[in-house]
Amino acid sequence: MLDLLNIAKPFADMDTPVDAETERAVCRWLYAEARFLDAERYQDWLEGFIDPEIHYWMPDMETRRRDDPRGTFSYGEAAYFDDNLPELTIRVKRYNEPSAWADNPATRHAHLISNIEVNATDDPSLLAVCSAFTNVRNRNEADQDIIHGRREDVLRKVEGGFRLLRRRVFIVQNVLLSKNLNTFF
Amino acid sequence: MCEGGCKGAAKGRPDMKPVYPRAASYPQYAGLVDRKNAQVDRQVFVSDAVYQAELQQIFARAWLFLAHESQIPNPGDFIRTSMGEDDVIVVRQRDKSVKAFLNSCPHRGNRVCMVDAGTKARGFICNYHGWSFGIDGALRGTDGKVYEKDQSFEKAQIGLTPVAQIDSYKGLIFATFDPDAPSLAEYLGPFTWYMDIMLDNDPEGTEFVGGAIKSEIDCNWKFPAENFVGDILHAFWTHQSGAQAILGGGVDLGSRYDELAFQASVYGHGIETNLDKVGNTRTLGYPELVDYVFDLSEKAKDRLGELRARAIGAVSSCTVFPNFSFLPGQNTFRVWHPRGPGKIELVVWTLVNKSAPEHIKEQYRKGVMMTFSPGGVFEMDDGENWEYSTRVNQGFVTRQQPLHYALGLESADLERDLPGHVHKGSLNDANQRLFYTRWAEFMEYDNWTDLQSGETAPPQKKAVEAAE
After folding, report:
1. B chain contacts of residue A60, beta-carbon cutoff 8 Å
2. Distance, CA of B14 to CA of A83 (rounded, Å)
3. So what's the pLDDT on residue A95?
4. Tens digit of pLDDT for each residue in B374-413?
5. Residues of chain B with C-beta less than 8 angstroms from the C-beta of A58
6. Residues of B in contact with A70 (CB under 8 A)
7. Fewer Cβ close by (within 10 Å): the C or N end of chain B?
């Protein structure tokens, strides 16, 4: 397996930026994805943005000493998401149930995406994309949850656009300051 | 400050012996649980005064869950956790025993351990003035040895405050701040017979896999604790969407198990189970896990007997009083740490049998993530219920209204020969009533003789021996 697709591995140096046109296309794709997630169009998100071979991982963060070899997170340990397509599909199925009470009344979402860097990889069909996000949820009268973090995505070029093949999501919180995660990142 | 002549301290030197708080008696709070009408006064969920009494009466006295032995296998391995709101470090010693201390320097009180966990630590050093402590909690030295030159300083007398008692039950480490508390075995009583469903269904024992996930929920700690002690009723409604997503159908207890289902309670600890073998395990979404539990159940009959072997993966839930809960079959273990009357920090772990094949352990880790972690399809819908059950009581008039805990008042099962107070059927408030009765006992009694012989104490019967 390409190192690039090894979920446990960070990207190598991001020193192979793509041309402006490709970068623009990736930005447009990322913003469109955010818009779909804002609108809770989860089934469309699965069908339009997600590669069938997706690996979507969001590890749990721990506070560790700098010299601790385990580090802040470690693949194979606790995670909020460690999903393939069938697992993402189960989550989406729940949202689509009328009895998904934590989503009825609806949550108001805002996915803000920034710090986008797009790099070429050894595989011409794959792009390495870094971004930062602010994920805002507000529901009922005044329940608000804001989560900040970074993402490391591998996008596969397909006809007419891209598909998300690998996503690593790193949030900055250790104790999750939210009662749940009724959102995607 | 002691002016000298204190017990154990040389003249002129401050006595630094641990101070373990004394319990009092709060009959006015005990009275908030109305046994006769099966009602609970909502003050127990919102009052600051009641909450402070809980920290004193319950969290400073009860045996509280700290860690699984497997989390700290080697000398110097440690985790940081809480007992009530008290920050605690749990450390494996060189002789393989486990010690636990308050995470607070006796000098100015700063935390001496800032991280969640670590391995092979040689000690803990306070960032403020450099006081350093061994893994046994003893003061080893101070920065620049300024103190060591001072006549009033006696290193041997100073250390991190240890818990009053620490012990483990089949891999689970518990501690108490009360030197007078009975042994852990006595505190758990015959409830261990039910805990063994998870802890002793295999000769090689258990371990935690994959670390802990922590999250905050703005609810009173008793709502989740009572939910796990015996509220399977909520699953039909709250978790309909999660069950649809994973199983393709609503929550189904399987009516053919109605005759088998029961609730049992000992000293406020409680289990409800449907004895349907794999109902909980099935919700993790991996057919191989269901096969594994069917096999395990068959093999475990010799160790546990037929009834408990049926419970390993069944629709079921447990709370060990006050705030340690788990789900057999789904294998999520968790503590609801109180953080004020209206907030908890939830810590969740996944328990597996040590002997389980690696891919089975991996499926438990992922299955618990998919169901009972903050993004899991079941846990997703719990938090808001508990938050609003707590928050609405800001309403002055609202909080005067009693809450109804009267399901199954006539359901005591006097025939079934099982440990504890047994009630028929799992759809029942019986365990929750006994949970709050235990809560009231802790509020009322300032001594363990009364605490261990109240209404929640296991009824005297031949159950335990007969069931073995």
Report:
1. 211-214
2. 57
3. 94
4. 999 999 999 999 999 999 999 999 999 999 999 999 999 9
5. 375
6. 119
7. N
Interface contact A179-B216, CB threshold 8 A? yes
Q: Which of A165-179, B249-263, B400-414, B424-438 has the lowest mean pLDDT?
A: B249-263
Pick the last residue of a domain from B126, B153, B180: B180
Helix (H) or strand (E) holding B349: strand B344-353
Of B117, B150, B180, the residue that ends a domain is B180
The pLDDT, as a whole number, for residue B1 is 41
Mean predicted lDDT score pLDDT of chain A: 96
Same domain? For B243 and B104 the reply is no
Q: What is the count of structural domains for chain B?
A: 2
Integer Cα distance of B345 and B216 in angstroms: 5
Domain of B114, in residue numbers: 63-180
Amino acid at B145: K
Which of the following is catalytic: B86, B200, B239, B423?
B239
- For testing the chain A interface, which of B286, B335, B373, B391 should be mutated: the one with the most A CBs within 10 Å? B373
* Residue at token pair 């852990």: B184
Q: Among all residues of chain B, which has the CA nearest to that of A74?
A: B210
Which residues fall within 8 angstroms of residue B171, CB to CB, at 6 or more apart?
A: B68, B69, B70, B199, B205, B206, B207
Mean pLDDT, residues B180-189 taken together: 98
